[in-house]
Amino acid sequence: MTSNTETIPGFKITKSFGVTTGSTVRAKHIGKDILAGLKNIVGGELKAYTELLMEARTEALGRMMMDAAQRGANAVVNVRFATSSVAGGAAELFAYGTAVTVEQE
Amino acid sequence: MYEFVETESIIVLALILIIIVFVAFFPLAFIYSMLFGWAHQSSKNKKLLAREQKVAGIVGGDNIHTLSTPINLEDISKCGLVMTNITVSPSWWQLFIGGIKSIFGGQIKSYDKVLAYGRAEVMQRLREQALGEGWSEVINVRVETSMVMNKVKGGQQNKIGTLEFLAYGTGIR
């Protein structure tokens, strides 16, 4: 289970395993970049980038949850996201949270 | 000798054509952006409004909120992260107008519209995704904004103006 609240309503935190993180750096190939540049003429949504960023963020989240599972946690609470553009056309997606074990009350 | 001249002239002609296409492309694209950018964006806005009303009709109000505790739900059996995103950018025309406006300062309406659309759209997607995945409520919703995919030239950011909006919250049922 993942949550971006400090506690999961209806559940009790029994043990904490500390901060768990996951990150990935992604770039789109040049063809998609050029197409996005053309789409830019009329403005609005750039679907290629939306998809790319969502894929990357899902992967970062997956890595974070793998890390938590390896430590023996069954939930991650207080998840936060950070995005930074590291180089031309590439973005780093970063997810972090606290790995815990929870029990239903 | 004669054949050689002919192939050479063809190459020169092709080069001239390529140059004309490239020189003409940018002004034409700019005019296209000026004429049709607005229509394109306002049609997207209308669709968004219709979707908002549809979801409001189904859930009877709003199924997302920023509080960290549930409002309506009493006992919770499951929870999970719900997240959606959108990347938007102003059109060339809007960038041009915004660039001129930013010399004098004050409100820049052309950027305003794009940002307002992006944020409304990402919230709407969160509502739809929550409905689709079967969450009865999404609590602790946060909206984040970041600049992505911008080329960095000599330490200064090139103004392509691609913005990403991310909305996420905890779905409960």
Describe it for me?
- The complex is a heterodimer of chains A (about 100) and B (about 170).
- Chain A has about 100 residues and is α+β, with helices and mostly antiparallel strands.
- Chain A has a single domain (about 10-105), classed as 2-Layer Sandwich (Translation Initiation Factor IF3), CATH 3.30.110.70.
- Chain A has 2 helices and 4 strands; from the N terminus they run βαβαββ.
- Chain A has helices spanning about 30-40, 45-70, and strands at about 10-25, 45, 75-85, 90-105.
- Chain A has a 3-stranded antiparallel β-sheet with strand order 1-4-3.
- Chain A is elongated and about 55 Å long.
- The two termini of chain A are about 15 Å apart.
- The longest helix of chain B is centred in the N-terminal third of the chain and has 58 residues, at about 1-60.
- The radius of gyration of chain B is 24 Å and the shape is elongated.
- Chain B has about 170 residues and is of the alpha+beta class.
- In chain B, α1 crosses α3 (about 110-135).
- Chain B has a single domain (about 1-170), classed as Hypothetical protein apc22750. Chain B (Translation Initiation Factor IF3, 2-Layer Sandwich).
- The interface of A and B includes residues 6, 49, 50, 83 and 89 of A.
- β2 (about 45) of chain A pairs antiparallel with β1 of chain B.
Offer a concise description of the structure.
With 105 residues, chain A is an alpha+beta fold. Chain A contains two helices and four strands.
Low-confidence stretches of chain A: none
Distance between the termini of chain A: 15 Å
Number of helical elements of chain B: 3
Distance between the termini of chain B: 83 Å
